[in-house]
Design goal:
Length: 832
C-alpha cells in the first residue's frame, strides 16, 4: 500500500469519528508520569553520548595524512558540552585490528588530530572510529565508525600504475554470500484479521541493498500481496493475514533466481500500530483483537525523541473501535521519533519509528571573495551561520577544501547531520545515508520511512527501564585520563572491598590507594596527560580473598561487527588520485619544512638486541642491597624473610624470633620518630606480619633501600624500605594456595599533540622551480573555525599550483545542538 493510500484509509475510517475524545487526559496519570520520570532518569543518570569525525576527505594513499576533527555531544539534545573530556580515535586495519590510536583532550566537546599513514600499511578498507570511555559501557556498536579506502601510493616503485590497480580484499564481512530478505510487520507483529503494513529489506552477503520483487502466497498457493523494492532493496506492502494460515514470500532477484522466505507468523490476538505523516500532522492508528467477551482496556501511547517525551496520552481501546492520535508535527524536534504503545497491564506491545525534520532550519552560507582564482592566489572565504529567521548562530565548525576531480562528490555519503539525526539512532549498517537528506520530496520521505520500518533501535528496554533496572557501568566518565579494572578471586568472582595500590614512577613518583566496589571494580583518575605515565597496579590477599587477580581494562575496545564492507575494487579515479598523491609526497619529502615528517635515508644497517622488560613490581631504581635466594643454596625452605636478612645487609638490624620478627635500618628515622621501614610485597605496601608469613620457598629476592634511594616513597620511606619480590610463574616451589600479591603494569598515554596542516603563504614573488606545490586532493584543512557574535567567520588560504574545481565543505555543531553542513565551490585556472 502506498503512503498516500495509507493516509486516506486512516483518515477515512469510521473509527476516527471518536478522535475528538481519544487520548484525553485520564484521572490516573501516574503511569505516564512514571514513564516521563524514568526517561529523564535514564538520560540524566546514564547520560549517553554520541561521537562524530569530520575527515578532510573520504579516501587516502599510504604516506598521506588523515586530518580529522572529533565532535562529542550528549545523545539527547546534541549539545557539545558533555561530561566527558577525553575522546579516543582509532584507526583499524582491514582485519579490524587497531593500528594507530589518538588520545585527545576535548574542549567544548571537540578536538582535532591526525594519522600519518606509514608506507608499510597494506592496501584495503580501513575503519576510523571515535568514542569516549563512557561510551564503552554501551558497546562498540554505539561508537562512530567510518570505512575509508587506503591505497598503496607506489612511492617506492618506479611508476604508479596507469591502467589498473591490484584488488585488495577487505575483511570478510560474513560467511553467508547469498542474498537475503527480511520482513518486518509495522509496529512489531502480524495479528490475524487485522490489515498490516509489512516492511522488507533485501541485502547481499555484505549487507548492501539489492533490488527485489515478488509476491506473498498462503499455503494453498493463493497470492495475497505483491512487492517490489524502491530503494536499496527496501519497500513495503499491505495485507490481512488469516487465522491459522502461514505465508511465504517468493522473491525474484536480478538474473532470474527465485527464493522462498517465510513471513512472521500471525498472532491470534494482539495490537496493530500504524503511523504516518500528512499535512503537517503525525497520525498514529491503533487497533486491537482479543476475542469475544474481552472488555475494553485503557492503553497508553507515548512518543519520545532521544529521551525527550514529546507526547503522552491514554484512551479506551476495544475490538470494535480503534482510534488515531493526530499530533502536530511542530511538537517534535528533528530526528527519529519512537512511538510506543502500552497495554492495560502497562506492558509495551508495539513500537514504530518515524523521522521528523522541520522545513526551516539553520543554514550555513560559504562565500568565496571570487569565483575564479589563479594558482597561488589568496582565497578569502566568508562562513556565515544563521537560523530560519536569519539571526546569527554561534557554532564550532571544521572546513575542508578538495579538488572535485580527485575527490568525487558522493551525495549519499554520511555527514554530521545524517549521523546525529538518523544513523546513530538506528540499528545496523545504513547504506548511503546522505540520500535521505538530498531532497524533501514525497518519494525520498517514503524510502526513508521504509528504512525506519526495517532498522528500528532504542537505547533501552522499556521493561527494564520501568522496573528501574539500569545496568551497572564498568567504565567511568573521564574528566581526565584514567585507568580502571577489576579484582577477581577464585572462580573469577569479583573481589569487593579489596585494597588496590597504584605506583607511578614517571614523570613524577606517586602512590595512590583505592578500594574495589561491590563488583570488584576500581578506577584511578586525575592523570594530566602531559607525559606518558608508567604505572604499576597491585593488590594483596585479604579476608576471605586468598589469591586476588587484577584484570585491567583493555586499552582498545573490541571491534564492532564489520558491516557493509566490500572488496577494494579497481577505480579509475583512484589511479588519478594516486598519481597526484605521489607527486605531492615526492615534493614534500624534498622541500617540506615540517620536521615531523619522515626523511629519505640511504642504506642503513639495523642492529638490535633483546630487550628485557623491567620488573613491574619495581618503581624504584637500583637498590642499596639485594639478596637473591637462588644464590644462597644453604638456606632452608623454612627460613623466613627476616632470617634471610639477619646479618647479611650492613645497617639492617633484625630483632625478635619467628613469627614475630622486625627489622630496623640504622640512621633512618621518619618524622613520626619511628625507625620501622616501609615493607613492600611485590610492590604492595604490607605490614611486618605479612612479611613474617613468607618462607624462602616463596621468595625470589629481598631488596633494601636507604636514604636517597627510598626518597621516591616520600615520608613513608623515611625509615628505609625493605622490598620482597616473590617467585612468579608455575614454579613447583610455590604452595598451591600461596597468599601472593598480584601485580600488573601498564602505560597511560599522554594527550596527542595534533600537527598543523601545511598551508604555505605566497607574497606574489616569482616561484622557484624547486618548490612545486602539488596540494590538490586536500588543498586546505582547518579544524578550528568558529563563528563570532555576528554568526560569521573568515578563513584565508592560498591556492597551489594545481588547477580545477575545488569544493569547500563545512561541518559542525551549533551551541544549541543543531548539526550543520555547508558547501560551496570555486575554480583555479593555471597561470600562463
Amino acid at each position: 500500500m502506498s503512503r498516500s493510500r495509507l493516509v486516506v484509509t486512516l483518515l477515512g475510517s469510521v473509527l476516527i469519528l471518536a478522535l475528538a475524545s481519544a487520548f484525553r487526559p485520564s484521572d490516573d496519570e501516574s503511569f505516564l508520569r512514571k514513564i516521563a520520570a524514568q526517561l529523564t532518569k535514564f538520560y540524566t543518570g546514564v547520560f549517553p553520548e554520541k561521537s562524530y569525525l569530520h575527515l578532510d576527505k573520504p579516501l587516502y594513499a599510504t604516506g598521506e595524512t588523515i586530518w580529522f576533527k572529533a565532535y562529542v555531544v550528549d545523545a539527547s539534545r546534541h549539545r557539545p558540552d558533555t561530561l566527558s573530556r577525553v575522546v579516543y580515535v582509532d584507526l583499524l586495519s582491514p582485519t579490524q585490528k587497531v593500528v594507530m590510536q589518538r588520545v585527545l583532550r576535548l574542549t567544548n566537546g571537540t578536538a582535532h588530530g591526525d594519522f600519518a599513514l606509514p608506507d608499510t600499511l597494506t592496501q584495503g578498507l580501513y575503519t576510523v572510529r571515535a568514542y569516549t570511555n563512557w561510551m564503552r559501557n554501551q558497546g562498540p556498536e554505539y561508537f562512530f565508525t567510518k570505512q575509508i579506502p587506503i591505497w598503496l601510493s607506489g612511492l617506492g616503485a618506479t611508476a604508479v600504475p596507469t591502467r589498473r590497480l591490484p584488488n585488495a580484499k577487505s575483511a570478510k564481512p560474513g560467511a553467508v554470500a547469498k542474498p537475503d530478505v527480511q520482513f518486518f510487520p509495522e509496529g512489531g507483529n502480524l495479528v490475524a484479521g487485522l490489515e498490516s503494513i509489512v516492511g522488507f529489506k533485501a541485502t547481499d552477503g555484505s549487507g548492501h541493498g539489492l533490488d527485489v520483487e515478488g509476491f506473498v502466497e498462503d499455503e494453498q498457493g493463493t497470492k495475497v500481496a505483491v512487492f517490489r523494492s524502491k530503494h536499496l532493496g527496501m519497500g513495503r506492502f499491505a495485507f490481512r493475514p488469516e487465522a491459522g494460515k502461514r505465508y511465504k514470500a517468493k522473491a525474484s532477484w536480478p538474473g532470474g533466481a527465485v527464493q522462498e522466505y517465510s513471513l512472521p507468523e500471525a498472532r491470534p490476538t494482539g495490537f496493530v500500530l500504524s503511523a504516518g505523516e500528512a499535512l503537517g500532522y503525525i497520525n498514529v492508528s491503533i487497533r486491537r483483537k482479543s476475542g469475544a467477551g474481552v472488555p475494553a482496556e485503557q492503553v497508553a501511547l507515548v512518543a519520545q525523541v532521544r529521551g525527550q517525551l514529546v507526547y503522552a496520552g491514554r484512551g479506551q481501546l476495544d475490538d470494535e473501535a480503534g482510534f488515531v492520535a493526530r499530533i502536530p508535527k511542530s511538537k517534535f524536534p528533528d530526528g527519529v521519533v519512537h512511538f510506543t504503545l502500552f497495554d492495560g497491564q502497562q506492558a509495551a506491545q508495539c513500537e514504530r519509528l518515524l523521522f521528523v525534520q522541520s522545513a526551516q532550519n539553520m543554514h550555513v552560507t560559504i562565500t568565496p571573495d571570487k569565483s575564479v582564482y589563479a594558482t597561488r592566489e589568496k582565497v578569502d572565504l566568508s562562513v556565515e551561520v544563521a537560523d530560519a529567521q536569519g539571526k546569527p548562530v554561534a557554532a564550532q565548525l571544521s572546513l575542508a577544501v578538495n579538488n572535485t576531480q580527485l575527490v568525487a562528490i558522493n551525495p549519499g555519503q554520511a555527514d554530521i547531520r545524517t549521523h546525529l539525526l538518523l544513523t546513530s539512532d538506528l540499528k545496523g549498517y545504513v547504506e548511503d545515508p546522505g540520500y535521505y537528506f538530498a531532497s524533501s520530496n514525497f518519494e525520498t520521505s517514503q524510502v526513508l520511512d521504509n528504512l525506519l520500518l526495517t532498522q528500528g533501535w532504542r537505547r533501552f528496554v522499556w521493561k527494564e527501564l520501568l522496573a528501574d533496572q539500569f545496568q551497572p557501568y564498568d567504565f567511568a566518565l573521564e574528566q581526565s585520563l584514567s585507568i580502571g579494572g577489576q579484582v577477581l578471586r577464585a572462580a573469577n568472582k569479583p573481589a569487593p572491598a579489596t585494597q588496590v595500590v597504584l605506583f607511578r614512577s614517571k614523570p613524577t613518583a606517586s602512590i595512590l590507594l583505592t578500594e574495589t566496589d561491590p563488583t570488584g571494580r576500581f578506577i584511578f583518575g586525575g592523570f594530566d596527560g602531559k607525559d606518558t605515565a608508567r604505572i604499576v597496579v597491585s593488590t594483596k590477599p585479604g579476608k576471605g580473598i586468598r589469591n586476588p587477580v587484577i584484570r585491567l581494562d583493555g586499552r582498545w575496545p573490541a571491534a564492532a561487527p564489520l558491516l557493509g564492507a566490500r572488496a577494494l575494487e579497481t577505480d579509475l579515479q583512484a589511479i588519478d588520485y594516486l598519481q597526484q598523491s605521489r607527486k605531492q609526497q615526492v615534493a614534500d619529502q624534498q622541500y617540506h619544512p615540517d620536521p615531523t615528517r619522515r626523511i629519505m635515508l640511504g642504506n642503513v644497517t639495523v642492529q638490535g638486541r633483546k630487550v628485557v622488560p623491567p620488573d613491574a613490581r619495581r618503581i624504584y631504581g637500583t637498590p642499596d642491597a639485594a639478596i637473591r635466594v637462588s644464590e644462597l643454596p644453604f638456606a632452608t625452605r623454612n627460613f623466613s624473610v627476616f632470617q634471610m636478612l639477619q646479618g647479611r645487609v650492613p645497617g639492617v638490624v633484625v630483632s625478635g624470633s619467628p613469627p614475630f620478627m622486625r627489622a630496623e635500618i640504622r640512621g633512618a628515622t621518619s618524622i613520626m620518630g619511628s625507625n620501622e621501614p616501609l615493607y613492600l610485597l611485590d610492590g604492595v605496601t604490607v605490614d611486618a606480619d605479612a612479611i613474617n608469613s613468607l618462607t624462602v620457598a616463596e621468595v625470589e629476592s629481598i631488596e633494601v633501600l636507604k636514604g636517597p634511594s627510598a626518597a621516591i616513597f616520600g615520608s613513608r620511606g623515611a625509615g628505609g624500605v625493605i622490598a620482597v619480590l616473590t617467585k612468579r610463574g608455575s614454579s613447583d616451589d610455590l604452595p598451591r594456595e600461596s597468599q601472593l600479591a598480584q601485580t600488573v603494569t601498564a602505560i597511560i598515554p599522554k594527550y596527542y599533540q595534533a600537527r598543523e596542516f601545511y598551508a604555505p603563504k605566497y607574497d606574489g614573488s616569482a616561484k622557484s622551480p624547486r618548490d612545486s606545490d602539488f596540494r590538490s586532493a586536500t588543498l586546505y584543512w582547518n579544524p578550528n573555525v568558529a563563528t563570532d557574535a555576528t554568526g560569521k567567520a573568515r578563513v584565508s588560504f592560498y591556492c597551489s599550483d594545481a588547477g580545477g574545481t575545488f569544493r569547500v565543505s563545512v561541518e559542525g555543531i551549533a551551541a544549541t545542538g543543531t548539526p550543520l553542513i555547508g558547501h560551496s565551490e570555486f575554480k583555479v585556472v593555471l597561470s600562463n
